[in-house]
Amino acid sequence: MTTFVDRVVIHASAGDGGNGCASVHREKFKPLGGPDGGNGGRGGDVIVVVDPSVTTLLPLHHRPHQRASSGKPGQGSNRHGAAGEDVVISVPDGTVVREIGSDPGDEDGPVLADLVGAGTTFVLARGGRGGLGNAALASPRRKAPGFALLGEPGEHRDVVLELKTVADVALVGYPSAGKSSLIAAMSAARPKIADYPFTTLVPNLGVVSAGDTVFTVADVPGLIPGASGGRGLGLEFLRHVERCSVLVHVVDCAALEIDREPLADLDVIEAELAAYGGLADRPRLVALNKIDVPDGRVVADMVVPLLADRGMRAIPVSAMSREGLRELTFAMAELVADHRRAAEPVAATRIVINPAAVDDSGFDVRADVDPDTGEPCFRVTGERPERWVRQTDFSNDEAVGYLADRLARLGVEQALLAAGARAGSMVVVGPGNGAVVFDWEPTIAAGAGGAHGPRGRDERLADS
Question: With 200 labelled, which of 2, 159, 178, 369 sits at a CA distance of 20 to 30 A?
Fold first, then answer.
């Protein structure tokens, strides 16, 4: 049995970058042949790709944790570490990527990507950069570095993947109004059909051909009064109406036997669509179904002029005898063709996050209070200084001196002085518990191998 899943929470962890290598070339008669430590490999990405052959998010429901492999460390003899392998997540066309709410009871957050079109790609979590080996760090000032840079940790991101069915026409109506029967009669789809409510528990899709127009039809199950507020199954499936360009009300003309009137049914469904929002501009048709049963045709003939007064076109049909299906099919095709002519061509929007394109030149220095000790401090934040801190091996004094040189060249020292920092002031680089704390010693020009700047209280606070 195939289970349809249209919303899952994914915990994506990209791979960490490999550490650079600190190595000195050695061979016979050349004991100190210069630095030859290779760079670490980058961590693997977690990537989401639209695959037309995938129709459900069920595999991700069973495997919500997606983790890419880390890069390998560099080695001597200028051997670079291998890059980590990417994890590619195949999702159906029409999948939306959202940030997850901060609390379990919160609604889903803002949209990160709307994946429409085969091959559309979104990098969900970026792998960490590999650390530079000492061969890459050599310079005229620092000819033989005795240190290498650490690899950066990969990103971790918790997101919601939500499937919104990509179809041209949505059939909406009360349970047992005959939506599944209409799809079965108009297309090759074979949905489950029975004579009790909520037979359809997942959206059914069918491909319909009318003349030169080929379009897809989906039924939206579980719409009852209060569906937009969470009653029944409607709220789970109303999202599938959003992408449809035409709405067709399927009205049960035989429902008088159970004290339901066609116009009242239509008004209830319209109220639920209005409460859900965003569907007022969709053209409507009304399929007056079950005219093959006793009194069904009489009810349909009475309702057609009443709907015409509302400006809605109504077509009496029977999914069982197939009467009126040709007229209904061509009416749908006409509205779909009009929408396609008016709409701009939809191209696959391949969204690729390029780390090199991120502007990381800025930073900020502000007076703050250390939450652990209550002492005044100066906090330095910014993509570049925080990345440099993550790359630094604080057990190596030369690596700490290199960090001080980089911060001084960026202008952090001048900014600290302008903010009121003095020798011995507590400086925190980075936000939250991943920050590094040190007692600052200002210097005009940090030495190539000295541990100026960040020293005295160098410590990486444990991640919570």
Answer: 159
How far CA 214 is from CA of 8, 169, 205, 217, 450, in Å, comes to 31, 11, 13, 10, 73
**Tokens of residue 245, six digits:** 């360009």
Contact between residue 394 and residue 437 where contact means Cβ atoms under 8 Å apart: no
Q: 301-316, pLDDT tens digit by residue?
A: 999 999 999 999 999 9
C-alpha triplet 34, 35, 38: angle, nearest 5°: 145
Q: Which residues contact 357 (CB under 8 A, 6 or more apart)?
A: none
The candidate with the shortest Cα–Cα distance to 246, out of 174, 163, 326, 329, is 329
Listed ranges 7-16, 181-190, 216-225, 233-242; the one with the highest mean pLDDT: 7-16
Q: How far apart are CA 121 and CA 105, in angstroms?
A: 29
Average pLDDT for residues 217-226, to the nearest whole number?
A: 67
Mean pLDDT (whole number) for 290-305: 88
Give the pLDDT score at 232.
45
Residues recorded for the chain: 464
Cα separation, 201 vs 198, in Å, equals 6
Cβ(222)–Cβ(198) below 8 Å: yes
- Provide CB contacts within 8 A for 26, sequence distance 6+: 32, 33
**Which residue's structure tokens are 């020798």?**
423
How many helices (DSSP H) and strands (DSSP E) are in the chain? 10, 19
Over the Cα atoms of the chain, what is R_g? Answer: 32
